[in-house]
Design goal:
The structure is a homodimer of 503-residue chains. With 503 residues, chain A is α/β, with parallel strands linked by helices. The first copy, chain A, has 14 helices and eleven strands. The N and C termini of chain A lie far apart (62 Å).
Amino acid sequence: MSEQDRIPAHGDLSAEEFRARGHEVVDWIADYLQGVRDRPVLSRSRPGDLLARIPAEGPDKPEDWHTLMRQLDDVVMPGVTHWNHPRFLAYFANTASVPGILGAMIATALNPNGMLWRTSPAATELEQRVTGWVARWVGLPDEMFGMIQDTASVSSLVAIAAARQSIPDYRRDAGGASLSAPPRLYVSEQAHSSIEKAAVVLGLGQDAVVKIPTRADYSLDPVALSEAIAADRAAGRTPFCIVATLGTTSTTSVDPIAEMLTIARDQKIWLHVDAAYAGPAAMMPELRPHFDGWQHADSVVLNPHKWLFTPMCSSLLYTHHPDTVREAFSLVPEYLRSDVGATSEDTESLPPDYMNYGIQLGRPFRALTLWFVLSTYGREGLESRLRDHVEMTAELAGWIDAHPDFERLAPNPFSAVCFRYRRAAGPDTGDGVQLDSVQEDEWASDNESIMARVNAGGRAFLSHTRLRGRLTLRLAIGNLRTERDDLRVAWDEITRAAAALSV
Amino acid sequence: MSEQDRIPAHGDLSAEEFRARGHEVVDWIADYLQGVRDRPVLSRSRPGDLLARIPAEGPDKPEDWHTLMRQLDDVVMPGVTHWNHPRFLAYFANTASVPGILGAMIATALNPNGMLWRTSPAATELEQRVTGWVARWVGLPDEMFGMIQDTASVSSLVAIAAARQSIPDYRRDAGGASLSAPPRLYVSEQAHSSIEKAAVVLGLGQDAVVKIPTRADYSLDPVALSEAIAADRAAGRTPFCIVATLGTTSTTSVDPIAEMLTIARDQKIWLHVDAAYAGPAAMMPELRPHFDGWQHADSVVLNPHKWLFTPMCSSLLYTHHPDTVREAFSLVPEYLRSDVGATSEDTESLPPDYMNYGIQLGRPFRALTLWFVLSTYGREGLESRLRDHVEMTAELAGWIDAHPDFERLAPNPFSAVCFRYRRAAGPDTGDGVQLDSVQEDEWASDNESIMARVNAGGRAFLSHTRLRGRLTLRLAIGNLRTERDDLRVAWDEITRAAAALSV
């Protein structure tokens, strides 16, 4: 009997068919995990490679299972950039950890929509529990209401929408038109673009985002923040939100949360903390001081799908003001009223209907995946893995500092280093003066070349940023499988690419 | 060696550990799929049941694998409402189909973030292909730009944000303040709450949503739409968007798309089509006429994770104006510029960086899951399954029509029926007149009782709505595993619950 014959004309494939194919897929994944270190990190695919091999018209008839798996290997895999590679050192890495994949398999198979408590009580209550577990581990209070959103982009948008809702004259019915003065939101110039995007989406306008200068260590300057707020008040604008970033995207710098908290309280405006990347680091007592004060913030986001080894999507949003979030988002049409014909007699004491705390009505069972990850490693296991990453980062910083032709360009409080290659002064320009901008352009070009060469080599993947105008290489550790040897390989690749420049 | 000993202190569990546990999980899922029909559809969990059994403090040490799986069975599963149950007939059902689970397993394991083309070229190009496949199958033109969002809530929000962006005086920098007149958006009074939520989130205000009355069949009245737009123009407001729903949530009614298209073009305003549920039905030639005209709409949403047998999250958004969507959303910070140190020399002809077309920067490999579903069944297989559901729905409508004590309350063009129990006139009130409102209250109470009894019984799960003030039962077919016998069981449950009322 061929595979095609086994596909029934109606209904789903059988559970037995799932069993057979599922075992095959598990072996495929195990082989992938085993061999991922040997694949090029950054895909070598060229634009259109996959488009050329997958037809523009979908199949009329069922595709044979083995053909599909062969296409996966031959057509899809060459086009995958391996975020799971231990030498994925660009952006902020993520990890589909073993328990994360296992939990997600089950969550996908159950596929409940946790929009209402009753549409899957376990999804809601497990979400309460796992958000609570993480809160305690990172020093956030039980009083904060926790929820799982899909991404930090959405978590921050929800927080900023709640901040808007708390502007005294804001009325949801009238929207932005109800505001008597232009709203203003304050972030460091190093903040993530998602904050600006939230302002755009919410219709506050990109101009509503005031970018506060940073200090030498790329942390927000609280004096400049106070001045900006005062200037806006004087000009008749309405400051309504401050966003503190603990672990910025370019340098992982840490805004002065305690001082920002004082300012927010004085000004009676919402303080949102974006700790999407670095938040889990608060599990380490030695790094907790960076976070001290966030427990009093109005809202906090941290992402298990970044540095807590959980596959996408998993972003935790905590707030002291769930009522305000609900005021900003809740809309309950008749067909979602669960008190009509309720089977539980006590609808008052029900756990939350999470659909009322965000944009999406559809809510997958993300708590299950996170529960598997947290349970499998336990608090101590997670903490020691994070500490490993921080220690490896410090080692790398040491190598950079020890090298005559490289320099670090920012502190590295967590697991990322910003640095660049800076070769000795270039050829004399004739008048004995090496112009600064010419020199900077040369250095930028050198570092672009190094990055391109390393990434094309396939053994490591780095990304870049720009700090005070200087093109900067950036190496961030975040994948659970990254080991010291991987870091050494990456550093070798970088120094060899630099050496090749001078040839 | 105990399980706990096998958890290393650093790094991830091994690939071999994944293989062992993965096979166990596959068997667990296969058993679940095999037996799901025997479980109660609606969870019998009471508020707090899971909270009472999972501690508020997470584990310090690694949890033993078998303990975790036992907790899954004993604590989590009783709290799951089984959306995968063939007699989940509430709301709109979904399906974690066999190929959907398999595809999602691989997508989760690879875990790439497709924010940029280069961060996983295959994710971007496969997204182009599968959105193209579905487009052709449902009669949308190749010229429409397709993308996968997580939910229809987000797809519609993105579409409405693009509609706002196309208002001549709208400037993203200034946001809502740039509008010289209040914006207005038109939907039928039967439209999904996500449209109103989008207006709230975007800061347009809930008042910006004008709800147009419907005709006898619950479709939007185009005459009333024209009048509303004219009245708003006369009052100095700015009509900017019309939303046509093809398959509304309560009754699956179909708005007159061709007439709405004419109005939108005359008025030069954006037409968004919400076909989140019913869109896949356009694969059936006999139902295509309901959709005729949508190919010219400015944007269209349809959800594979509803009636196309794909596990959450999968919502397709198509538009003729990708540039406008990009103008509404694109923000590219330095660290995401992929032309710096690019390994491909030709960055101009690159496929899209999908992060520029929506809210979220994080984009999981949703195309892979959908590709598995579409390939495994093929166009004909999907079409015949959808037709099955429509035919089963017609059969149920026949049973209702044939029953003296039940009545249908709306047409059923797709796979849902709205109906109610209406027993013969109650006891004489003494003056010989049965007041209408008293009668309506009694009927409402009867139907609430029927729904509560059926749902508590666990053999089927129905939901309700309210149509022109009347409490209405609603039975919707959408799960791939629903068979004719399931429908008979559900109907038996309903008629028995009705019979029990008179006792």
